[in-house]
Structures are given as C-alpha cells and as structure tokens.
C-alpha cells in the first residue's frame, strides 16, 4: 500500500456571515499534496466565498485555515500568496494594457529573490535575477502556448487565451496550491478540452495541488481526484467523482436549483 500524501491545506469548521446572511456554515475540508480537488454546488452555494477566505480577501467569522501547517487567518492576500496560494478569478483580472510577457514577469517579480536595493542600483545580482526571470517567463509562455503572442497587449488576446494567461500568471508566483475559479467559463468546447489537459499536465509536472470551481459537471468528473459539494453554505457531500455522481443529496440540490430557476423563468 502506498503512503498517503501529506495534507497541504486544511479548513476546519469555517463559517462566514455577511450581515444576516450565512454564506458558509461550519465547513471543513482538506487537500493533500498533489491532489486535484473539485468544489461544486448550485449558484450562491458559497464556493467563491470559500476561495475568498482561502486567499485572504475576507476573514472567516469562525474556524481556522492552515496551509502547509501555517495559519492563514488574518493574513492579507499578498501574504497568503507568498505562503504559497495563488488564484484566478471568475472575472479575468489581467493587466490589459501590458504585454503578455510583462504580465508573467510581474508575477515573477513579486517572488523574485533580488532585493529592491539591488534592482535600484542595478547591481550584478539584479541582472542575474532579470536573466533568470526572462528564462522562466519564456518557459511558462511555451507551456501555455502563448509564446507567439508575448508582445501583444494582454487585453487584445482572445477570451480563451486571456484565461490561459491568467493561470500562467498565477503559476508564475510559485504556488503550492492553485485555486481556479471557473477557468473554463466562456470557453468553447475545444478550448475547454485543451484547458483540462493543460490543468492535468500542470498538476503532474509542477507537483502542486489544485482546487477547481467549475460549473461544467462532466469536466469536473473527468479531472478531479475528489470533490466537495456545497449547498446554501453547507458542505453536503465529499468523495470521488463516482460517489458524487450518485449522491442523492447532490442530485436533490441541483434539481432544487433547476426548479427554482424554472420558477423564476
Ligand atoms: N461581499 C459579500 N457581501 C454580501 N453577500 C455576499 C458577499 N459575497 C458573497 N455573498 C453572498 O454569499 C452567498 C454565497 O455566494 P458565493 O459567491 O460564494 O456563491 P457561489 O457558490 O460562488 O455562487 P456562483 O456559482 O453563483 O458564483 C450568496 O448569497 C452571495 O450573495
């Protein structure tokens, strides 16, 4: 029997309220090193809120979050990024007026080892750092098939390519865990299939954990090792794709959503 991978991310009994609204209620979850975990649930279930808690956009009202044994509660988004969590957003947030390659280099700079002093005075260490960053940015552009567009303004890329660039940029910060919020939203079926192959490849080659929010159910079922299901702020199921596919509670939650949507139509 192989030894189980160590736990990387731990969420313990986390809740979050917004005024009177309980967006998350006593949710616990974990991710092991190298796992690709799905986070699904009907609209308004609390998925993005959980991402926002994991990345320091909001603080939990109760409960604790640990990454690689370090507590994340109370840290700012940039501090959590430095501890190894990077994310993409539902609505793409690139520097549209900067080139593709500069978007990647910006992310490297956040984590580059050369200090502000060495870059200010252009010390030899600064040039060594720049050379290294150029090399790494090149590698990432090749992997994400964006090399031929490196000097184009990010805002001019097609939607599918902007989504890929956003993931490339998150990866450039050297994360231990990558949080992807609906990375396939707005993509056509071919772009989606390519993206999924890429996500699996990233997981295997960068040996990192990935948490994926995605509405496309077949996609989640195909790529994830395990899945958590939220509904109205509560965790209602957890398990392998097979377990989730046949869970009566999950089916009921989604049917409930369909019925609500039909009622509003
Ligand atoms: N900043 C906020 N202020 C007030 N309410 C919020 C805030 N953020 C989220 N909510 C509420 O919390 C609940 C959960 O929202 P959340 O965006 O986390 O759901 P979701 O599962 O990501 O939904 P979707 O699939 O539609 O993106 C919703 O009722 C939402 O309106």
Fold and architecture overview:
This protein has 265 residues and is an alpha/beta fold. The protein contains 10 helices and 10 strands. The protein has helices spanning 47-54, 77-83, 100-111, 116-120, 124-143, 159-172, 189-206, 217-223, 241-245, 248-264, and strands at 7-18, 21-32, 36-40, 62-67, 70-71, 85-87, 177-181, 209-213, 226-231, 234-239. The strands form 2 sheets. Strands 6-7-8-3-9-10 form a 6-stranded mixed β-sheet, sandwiched between helices. A hairpin with a 2-residue loop joins strand 9 and strand 10. Helix 5 (124-143) crosses helix 6 (159-172).
Mean pLDDT: 88
Radius of gyration: 19 Å
- The amount of beta strand, in percent, is 15-25%
CATH topology: Rossmann fold
Quaternary structure of the protein:
single chain
Q: What hetero molecules are bound to the protein chains?
A: adenosine-5'-triphosphate
Offer a concise description of the structure.
It holds the Pfam family ABC_tran. With 265 residues, the protein is an alpha/beta fold.
Which properties best describe this structure?
binds adenosine-5'-triphosphate; ATP-binding; 23% strand; Rossmann fold; 265 residues; 6-stranded mixed β-sheet; ABC transporter ATP-binding protein
Please give the structural blueprint.
Layout: E1 7-18, E2 21-32, E3 36-40, H1 47-54, E4 62-67, E5 70-71, H2 77-83, E6 85-87, H3 100-111, H4 116-120, H5 124-143, H6 159-172, E7 177-181, H7 189-206, E8 209-213, H8 217-223, E9 226-231, E10 234-239, H9 241-245, H10 248-264
Parallel strand pairs: 3-8, 3-9, 6-7, 7-8
Antiparallel strand pairs: 1-2, 1-4, 4-5, 9-10
Helix pairs in contact: 3-5, 3-6, 5-6
